Amino acid sequence: MTTEISPQRLENLNAFWEAANYLSVGQIYLLDNPLLRAPFKREHIKPRLLGHFGTSPGLTLIYAHLNRLIQDTDADLLLVVGPGHGGPAILACAYLEGCMTEVYPQLTMDIAGMNRFMRQFSWPGGIPSHVSPPTPGSIHEGGELGYALVHAYGSVFDNPNLITVCVVGDGEAETGPLAAGWHGNKFVNPLRDGAVLPILHLNGYKISGPTIFGRMPDAQITKFFEGCGYQVRFVEGDNPNLVHQALWETLDWSYSEIKKIQQTAKTEGVKGPAPWPMIVLRTPKGWTGPKIVDGKPIEGTFRAHQVPLAEVIKNPSHFQMLEEWLRSYHPDQHFDETGYPSPAVLSLIPRPPKRLGASPYANGGLLLKDLKLPDYTDYAVEVSSPGAVEEEATRQLGKFLRDVFKFNDQEQNFRIFCPDETQSNRLGEVFEVTKRMYLGDILSSDENLAPDGRVMEILSEHCCQGWLEGYLLTGRHGLF
Q1: Does residue 71 register a pLDDT over 80?
Q2: Which 8-state DSSP code applies to residue 30?
Q3: Mean pLDDT of the chain
Q4: Phi/psi at 476 (nearest 5 deg)?
Q5: Taking residues 128-146, what's their average pLDDT?
Q6: CB 176 within 8 A of CB 150
């Protein structure tokens, strides 16, 4: 799929991006005067500044472009945001699309509601600084570094119509769970599952130093992920117009590759792990923020990770720089006199059921069907007298779970997630009705392997737990 890049829609993309960036900065800094319509004063600034700006511009960029992709394809998308404290960005986007107001009616889309929206961020009685359960459209806790990718893969198992876009922070990519999580692509069956599109958000820095991937050359990064089985495309730069065009084209390519893989599986069958696409987005940390503060570079360095201007109340030059920074996003163009988003900003928002913040997949209770369970008393072991019977409790449990698979065969909404211990834990009776899920070569000496198996075995307990969590939170049932 390749859609024509319209100059007007590019302008609208940039308008949404600027408006979301403005709201991101406002959440970190502003206590009052949310659109700077009154003369800007120090009392309009929060007395304690909490939050992380460094990752925010990349996240708002991705969100804006996913909105465009949804408009053009009507795809079911779920967004999993791994960068730990990307809360300002995702909350800003959810506010612009109206989901914050729908979930929290007091956060009206006007100046008063915007003021409440900004004030509640990292504020007593408010909401956390990271993407978290109060964030519409989220199934992932942004402070739980390392689990974004496994949550994403868990969400697409048995969800054939879903594409989960997973943003992986390059700091998060240094954790053990995330490192193992890249292998989730080898457990996605394109005939019955959805797809995960990983986006490695490569802005180069952690809190106080460079990331491993951030200093790796593109060729080395490509080899790494091609070795993991992905098709890799880069989107790089610091010129917004060029980055907008590149990300538009790359998302179209990614969507086309996903659909091609799924269609090939339907016509030719599943012949091993598929070469799913992934994107490496390399943009400056703290992009569009202050470039130099007190003689030290900020944008594109570790100093942009949290609060780029930390002394805005005490330091007059910081205060002036904050106002200039906020106004650089042109809030008067992107919000009308009442504080409502402009037509250009709103033109990027998908139809209501398709908005990222309103995805039913992010609210598993909307999709959940009760699990059909056999009567557990049917599996009791009759003991006529003490010591008369030799039996294992877990083997009886295996029989029970075997029948759970049978009872729910039509719904296909139950899986076991196990770090290679199904048999050793005496649950082997489940293999009478299903197999271990495996897409690689199967040898004659192997046992109980099949590409449509419903027992998910990988030695990483992080993967098993994370897959289960993503599976449960999107409306299914499972056992670890």
Answers
A1: yes
A2: B
A3: 94
A4: -125, -170
A5: 86
A6: no
Residue 457 has phi, psi (to 5 degrees) of: -115, 125
Separation between Cα atoms, residue 272 and residue 274, nearest integer Å: 6
Paired strand residues for 76: 162
Residues 6+ apart with CB under 8 A from 240: 14, 17, 288
> How crowded is residue 126: how many other Cβ atoms within 10 Å of its Cβ?
15
Check: CB of residue 227 under 8 Å from CB of residue 273: no
Element holding 359 (H helix, E strand): none
30 in Cβ contact with 44 (< 8 Å): yes
How far is the CA of 115 from the CAs of 89, 106, 405, in angstroms?
A: 16, 11, 51
Does residue 132 have a pLDDT over 90? Answer: no
pLDDT range class, residue 418, cuts 50, 70, 90: very high
Residue 8 and residue 68 in contact, taking contact as beta carbons nearer than 8 Å = no
The span from the CA of 56 to the CA of 84, in Å, is 11
- pLDDT tens sequence across 172-221: 999 999 999 999 999 999 999 999 999 999 999 888 899 999 999 999 99
DSSP state of 77: E
No. of H helices and E strands in the chain?
14, 12
Angle among Cα 370, 376, 377 to the nearest 5 degrees reads 145
Q: Whats the size of the chain, residue-wise?
A: 480
8 A C-beta contact, residue 235 and residue 244 = no
3-class secondary structure per residue, 57-99: HHHHHHHHHHHHHHHHHCCEEEEEECCCCCHHHHHHHHHHCCH
Q: 278 in helix, strand or coil?
A: strand
Q: Is residue 91 exposed (0-12), middle (13-18) or buried (19+ Cβ within 10 Å)?
A: buried
Whether residue 387 has pLDDT greater than 90: no
DSSP bridge partners of 335 = 341
Q: Report if pTM > 0.85.
A: yes
Question: Within a 10 A sphere around the Cβ of 169, how many other Cβ atoms?
Answer: 30
For residue 142, give every residue at least 6 positions away whose Cβ sits within 8 Å of its Cβ, in sequence order, or none: 81, 82, 83, 84, 85, 86, 87, 130, 131, 132
